[in-house]
């Protein structure tokens, strides 16, 4: 098998790059990690193996720090590309679920790569950089999976649910668990899709549109006790579960379904853990005309009320436009409702954060994301978000949003799929992103003018086409290097047999 590896060579004597033996970059680094140009003289080929490129600000000199990128190397000589750059703007990222566990941000969705990292629909932020979770999950055919839900157990185990058929070479049917090292199947899995997970009192509750072999009453809703599946009475014979919330002695179930155990519930019901019985929550929800209704998200208010978001218009005769509150006996519209669907709710003390496909909320002209302070809705810069936020999580003192969206920070930098809101502006996890490469970086170096050259397996850098080699200026712009007269076939390619 022949492997092609790209070598980066930068000439400081002329504008033409010459192929020569690369020297370890550690030989020419100053104490702060920047390159000491005076040490290079005429030896200008640099091998950055074992180092990560770091750019603290967009106008800073490139700095190299030791790294051990064991999970993100496509080849032993590849190195992790700086988190400051991230993916180029053509990378497709859909984040469907976010949890924070043991100081880590864990994301799931539909993506092959995240910020240049091959991770197959799941990844996590460890406080300094994004990492893959084992081999991730894929469809049985090898296509892009959809991770729809994540849930963490107190011992740190992370459950993964969605639409997938394998992890690595192992069959894994739509539900799995990550124990910190490897992803393994949960039993034989389920047949269908998993949309929601909730871990409560040593039990994992699973909702979606599925059946489980050997468990006849586990239809669209079931529980996993760590060793076997349990049905919740007769389950939901027809419909789909989109949201689960376990709280105290109840598991609230929302979605698109009419009945549970012969109870007419209209998209929302509660499973009483003590009595092992289903309970109605008022009249549930209906839509206007023949439209379908859906419950997408739930949260518990500081006073114990249940807050629901989705796509609905009424509960019985009451108007509850897409957002409702259950006080234990009746439904009411939350905060004046919204003119579009609510896809995520986060309640933090007396503050509620919501996101979705709305342009007015509480009769205010606020779109996509909003904050409710108990009396009024507040804008959160939703007009910057191009797309939809589908998940909200609190991280430290910031709000973390995930979804299918882009947020242009500047003309050159775009945040995709996941972003942090600090109360004033949107930023990226780990620095400004969206101006990087769409593939691996193999080698890099600088010239006498301080420009950074990179070479690797990519076709775009930032917003320009640059196949295999590109130059990053001291400002914030990528450039092609076609005008240097480099012949990639003869100069940069080395063949290993």
Overall structural class, as computed from helix and strand content, comes to mainly beta
Low-confidence segments: 1-21, 55-60, 67-81, 483-497
Taken as a percent bin, the fraction of beta residues is over 45%
Q: How are the strands of the largest sheet arranged?
A: 6-7-10-11
Overview of this protein structure:
It is a single chain. This protein is an all-beta fold and 497 residues long. The strands form 16 sheets. It has a four-stranded antiparallel β-sheet with strand order 6-7-10-11, with no helix packed on it. A four-stranded antiparallel β-sheet has the order 12-13-16-17, with no helix packed on it. The radius of gyration is 26 Å and the shape is globular. The chain starts with a strand and ends with a strand.
Q: What labels would you give this structure?
A:
globular, 4-stranded antiparallel beta sheet, 45% strand, mainly beta, 497 residues, disordered C terminus, 1 helix, 48 strands
Summarize the model shown.
With 497 residues, the protein is mostly beta strands. The chain is built from 1 helix and 48 strands.
Question: What is the strand and helix layout of this fold?
Answer:
Layout: E1 3-6, E2 23-24, E3 46-47, E4 51-54, E5 63-66, E6 94-101, E7 104-110, E8 113-114, E9 117-118, E10 122-125, E11 130-132, E12 146-152, E13 158-163, E14 166-167, E15 170-171, E16 175-178, E17 183-185, E18 191-200, E19 203-211, E20 221-224, E21 229-231, E22 239-247, E23 250-257, E24 259-260, E25 263-264, E26 268-272, E27 277-280, E28 294-300, E29 306-311, E30 314-315, E31 318-319, E32 323-326, E33 331-333, E34 342-348, E35 351-356, E36 369-372, E37 377-379, E38 386-395, E39 398-408, E40 414-421, E41 426-427, E42 440-446, E43 452-457, E44 460-461, E45 464-465, E46 469-472, E47 478-479, H1 488-491, E48 493-496
Parallel strand pairs: 2-3
Antiparallel strand pairs: 1-48, 4-5, 6-7, 7-10, 8-9, 10-11, 12-13, 13-16, 14-15, 16-17, 18-19, 19-20, 20-21, 22-23, 23-26, 24-25, 26-27, 28-29, 29-32, 30-31, 32-33, 34-35, 35-36, 36-37, 38-39, 39-40, 40-41, 42-43, 43-46, 44-45, 46-47
């Amino acid at each position: 098998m022949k492997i092609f590896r790209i070598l980066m060579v930068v000439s400081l004597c002329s504008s033409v790059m010459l192929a020569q033996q690369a020297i370890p970059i550690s030989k020419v680094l100053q104490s702060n990690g920047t390159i000491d140009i005076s040490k290079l003289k005429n030896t200008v080929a640099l091998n950055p193996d074992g180092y990560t490129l770091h750019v603290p600000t967009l106008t800073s000199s490139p700095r190299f720090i030791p790294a051990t990128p064991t999970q993100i190397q496509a080849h032993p000589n590849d190195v992790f590309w700086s988190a400051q750059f991230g993916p180029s703007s053509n990378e497709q990222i859909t984040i469907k679920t976010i949890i924070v566990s043991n100081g880590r941000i864990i994301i799931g969705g539909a993506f092959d790569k995240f910020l240049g990292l091959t991770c197959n629909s799941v990844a996590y932020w460890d406080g300094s950089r994004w990492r893959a979770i084992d081999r991730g999950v894929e469809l049985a055919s090898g296509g892009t999976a959809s991770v729809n839900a994540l849930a963490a157990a107190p011992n740190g185990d992370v459950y993964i649910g969605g639409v997938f058929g394998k992890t690595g070479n192992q069959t894994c049917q739509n539900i799995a668990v990550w124990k910190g090292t490897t992803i393994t199947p949960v039993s034989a899995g389920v047949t269908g899709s998993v949309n929601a997970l909730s871990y409560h009192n040593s039990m994992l509750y699973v909702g979606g549109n599925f059946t489980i072999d050997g468990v006849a009453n586990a239809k669209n809703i079931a529980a996993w006790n760590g060793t076997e599946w349990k049905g919740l009475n007769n389950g939901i014979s027809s419909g789909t579960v989109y949201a689960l919330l376990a709280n105290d002695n109840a598991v609230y179930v929302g979605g698109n379904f009419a009945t549970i155990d012969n109870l007419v519930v209209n998209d929302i019901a509660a499973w009483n853990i003590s009595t092992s019985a289903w309970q109605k929550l008022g009249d549930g929800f209906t839509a206007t005309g023949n439209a379908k209704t859906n419950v997408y998200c739930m949260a518990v208010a500081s006073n114990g009320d249940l807050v629901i978001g989705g796509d609905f218009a009424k509960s019985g005769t009451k108007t509850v436009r897409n957002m409702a509150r259950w006080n234990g006996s009746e439904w009411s519209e939350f905060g004046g409702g919204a003119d579009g669907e609510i896809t995520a709710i986060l309640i933090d003390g007396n503050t509620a954060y919501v996101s979705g496909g709305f342009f007015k909320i509480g009769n205010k002209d606020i779109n996509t994301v909003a904050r409710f302070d108990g009396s009024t809705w507040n804008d959160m810069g939703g007009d910057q978000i191009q797309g939809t936020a589908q998940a909200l999580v609190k991280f430290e003192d910031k709000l973390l949003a995930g979804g299918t969206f882009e947020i242009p920070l500047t003309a050159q930098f775009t945040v995709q799929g996941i972003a942090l809101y600090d109360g004033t502006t949107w930023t990226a996890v780990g620095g400004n992103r969206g101006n990087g490469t769409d593939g691996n970086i193999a080698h890099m170096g600088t010239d006498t003018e301080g420009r950074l050259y990179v070479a690797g397996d990519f076709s775009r850098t930032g917003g320009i086409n640059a196949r295999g080699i590109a130059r990053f200026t001291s400002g914030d712009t990528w450039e092609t290097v076609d005008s240097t007269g480099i012949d990639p076939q003869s100069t940069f390619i080395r063949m290993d047999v």
